[in-house]
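quick q for whoever's on today - can somebody do inverse folding on this one?? i tried earlier but teh output was garbage lol. tokens:
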């Protein structure tokens, strides 16, 4: 591909670019110099799973790698202890060093399901941010105005609603932007909700005498609820290392209205192939069949074609023919007698006693295919039982007293 074709290829599926002309210029110069571009991506290592929403950005980063460029992943071991306020209506919990280290160990294995190790660099932003003195911090803060920070929609809304906005949250974009200065990033990728943070990096580079980075943002993928963005915080995510059956089953649960968007953002389908999916749905093809095609495609991307077919068959067996899954997660219960509500919460099948009582009242809880109707029911576990919540949550309870 020539430079313009390369730029057009990299623009596919993006939300916004600042600016395309600068991207072309950087591509041309690096081609002449025979040097790879440094493409930066910040990593929020809160929680153990990389999900399909974050994979949208990672897969765009992989496209840059396939063209010979270097992915520079910034691990927020410093900024993670501040807590990214982007899109938050309240202050985000701050992470500890131990939490960041633990999650990062799991992240690397997952990241390399998408990225090429030989074209990937990991940098921890404590490397430079921990060394900033009070004088350095004041100097950094002097390069950006309060007015620009408060233009952010999430900050403005919190102020209008009388909700707290803390100084450490205002400083967060500066520290994240300073990462771009530290690694001399040519390009920075991020989700659409990171647009303001990425702009700060671009402007700080200019203030420090560097060529400003090109900003590329990617659309946000809604979670399995079809409403909120996919997030571990909202528990509406599909993790790329979850078992194939789980990935396929969760994909089958997305709203029909999200099918085309998932093909566009969660698979490697071309624009033409996505348009064909949209045409088929509009022409009356069964959404369930299209979701099956989608689920198999996603499983195939992160596992194999054989795993995809097996997951589809297992789904049909369990949900169409009302069978019990062939493989069940087990929970060893040390009590012989336990209240049904307490059991549902103890096994983490449901998050609270209130939710457990609600599900029992709805008839969504099963014990060995029978629906309990009394939240005060006491269960005696003398032998293994199968506990089921809704259509997809199964657990085998093993007596361990």
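ok took a stab at it. sequence:
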């Amino acid at each position: 591909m020539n430079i313009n074709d390369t730029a057009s290829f990299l623009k596919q599926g993006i939300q916004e670019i600042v600016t395309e002309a600068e991207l072309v210029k950087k591509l041309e110069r690096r081609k002449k110099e025979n040097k790879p571009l440094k493409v930066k991506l910040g990593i929020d290592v809160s929680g153990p799973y990389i999900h399909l929403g974050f994979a949208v950005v990672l897969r765009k980063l992989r496209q840059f790698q396939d063209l010979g460029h270097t992915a520079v992943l910034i691990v927020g071991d410093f900024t993670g202890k501040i807590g990214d306020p982007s899109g938050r209506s309240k202050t985000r919990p701050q992470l500890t060093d131990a939490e960041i280290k633990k999650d990062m160990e799991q992240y690397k294995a997952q990241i390399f399901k998408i990225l090429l190790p030989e074209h990937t660099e990991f940098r921890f932003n404590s490397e430079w941010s921990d060394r900033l003195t009070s004088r350095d911090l004041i100097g950094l803060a002097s390069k950006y105005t309060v007015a620009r920070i408060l233009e952010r929609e999430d900050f403005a809304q919190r102020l209008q609603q009388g909700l707290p906005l803390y100084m450490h949250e205002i400083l967060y974009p500066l520290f994240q932007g300073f990462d771009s200065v530290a690694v001399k990033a040519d390009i920075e990728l991020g989700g659409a909700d990171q647009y303001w943070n990425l702009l700060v990096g671009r402007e700080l580079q200019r203030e420090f005498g560097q060529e400003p980075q090109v900003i590329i943002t990617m659309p946000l993928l809604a979670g399995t609820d079809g409403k909120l963005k996919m997030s571990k915080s909202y528990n509406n995510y599909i993790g790329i290392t979850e078992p194939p059956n789980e990935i396929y089953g969760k994909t089958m649960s997305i709203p029909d209205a999200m099918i085309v968007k998932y093909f566009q953002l969660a698979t490697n389908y071309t624009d033409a192939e996505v348009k064909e999916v949209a045409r088929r749905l509009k022409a009356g093809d069964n959404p369930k069949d299209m979701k099956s095609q989608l689920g198999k495609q996603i499983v195939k991307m992160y596992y194999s074609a054989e795993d995809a077919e097996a997951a589809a068959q297992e789904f049909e067996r369990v949900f169409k023919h009302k069978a019990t899954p062939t493989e069940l997660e087990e929970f060893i219960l040390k009590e012989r007698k336990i209240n049904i509500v307490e059991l549902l919460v103890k096994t983490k099948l449901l998050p609270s006693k209130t939710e457990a009582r609600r599900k029992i009242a709805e008839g969504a809880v099963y014990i060995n295919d029978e629906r309990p109707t009394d939240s005060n029911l006491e269960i005696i576990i003398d032998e293994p039982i199968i506990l089921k919540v809704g259509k997809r949550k199964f657990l085998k309870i093993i007596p361990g007293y």
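fwiw Residues 232 and 375 are 29 Å apart (CA to CA). also The two ends are 66 Å apart (CA to CA). so keep that in mind when u check it
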